[in-house]
Write a structure and sequence with these properties.
Layout (H helix, E strand, L loop, with lengths): L18 E7 L6 H13 L4 E6 L2 H4 L7 H7 L3 H13 L3 E6 L2 H9 L5 E3 L7 H9 L4 E4 L5 H12 L5 E6 L13 H9 L4 E5 L5 H8 L4 E6 L13 E2 L1 H18 L22
Helix pairs in contact: 1-4, 6-7, 9-10
């Protein structure tokens, strides 16, 4: 597959063909200093961006939900995200976040976060999509669990506010087994939507994301932890600094291998051109 979109034109600060996102998410456990250490670690790998989750627990889930206490423990106050954005800027890595309520979305806008991530859970949350669209900023939306009609509806809603949209194929299983990755969905999304297509991956290693890039994915999102000794919420689906470094390196290598379409006599073929056999 070839790359069909110039990412910079869609609001992604990258001159490369693939934009790599380290999803720190909740792995800081509500500890701001640990969140900064995760940014330090991710920045060393050459990743394009770090992503967090911004929310008010009471608005994200019911009090009797089995994940309420986990989310509450990992909730950071709004002002922490301003610090994390500034810290990411100093580390030359782009900062953004997934808001889960309108207050969180508004706060991210107030501190000039330049793009939004929408989780798979909110593809069918049309009122929330309209709110995000109203800011007119680039949007990345994961589409786990969604059928094509739901994705099309969400895309149309977002398109009323911004034309800078990217869709991430996603399997909302934590972790996802390789045989369940369904990378063929990337081909289908590329056929149906005039925007960059990527993958939000929940397999443990980096093999599936690299295959996704070979299938045409231009954005890759992976949950991130510093090392295997780190006790964090999303440890089973998170890759380490060492793994992310390898993913970035292999992605840049793969970009060169895939290249840009070109027919006719290529530079590497010039010495062999003399042996072409034209009819007389």
């Amino acid at each position: 597959m070839t790359y069909t979109k110039i990412l910079d034109e869609f609001g992604f600060k990258s001159k490369n063909n693939v934009y790599i996102i380290a999803e720190i998410g909740l792995n800081h456990g509500g500890d701001l200093e640990l969140a900064k250490k995760l940014i330090d670690s991710a920045a060393k790998t050459g990743t394009d961006a770090v992503k967090f989750q911004t929310y008010l627990t009471e608005k994200r889930t019911a009090a009797d939900s089995p994940i309420f206490n986990v989310l509450k423990k990992c909730e950071l106050p709004f002002e922490a995200f301003k610090q994390l954005k500034e810290y990411s800027d100093k580390n030359n890595v782009e900062f953004f976040s997934t808001p889960f309520d309108e207050e969180s979305a508004a706060y991210l806008n107030s501190i000039d976060v330049e793009l939004y991530k929408i989780s798979s859970f909110d593809v069918v949350n049309h009122n929330f999509l309209r709110k995000i669209a109203s800011y007119g900023k680039p949007v990345i939306m994961s589409v786990g669990m969604s059928n094509t009609k739901e994705i099309e509806t969400a895309f149309k809603i977002l398109s009323k506010g911004t034309k800078k949209i990217a869709l991430l194929h996603c399997i909302s299983a934590y972790p996802t087994q390789e045989e369940d990755a369904m990378l063929s969905n990337i081909y289908e999304l590329k056929k149906k939507f005039d925007c960059p297509i990527g993958q939000s991956d929940h397999t443990y290693d980096i093999t599936v994301p690299l295959y996704a890039i070979a299938a045409g994915a231009q954005l890759i999102e992976k949950h991130y932890k510093i090392d295997d000794g780190m006790d964090c919420v999303d440890a089973p689906v998170s890759i380490t600094e060492k793994q992310l470094t390898r993913l970035v390196k292999e992605t840049r290598r793969l970009e060169k291998i895939i290249g840009k379409p070109k027919f006719g006599i290529r530079e590497s073929e010039k010495e062999i051109e003399q042996f072409r056999r034209y009819s007389k």
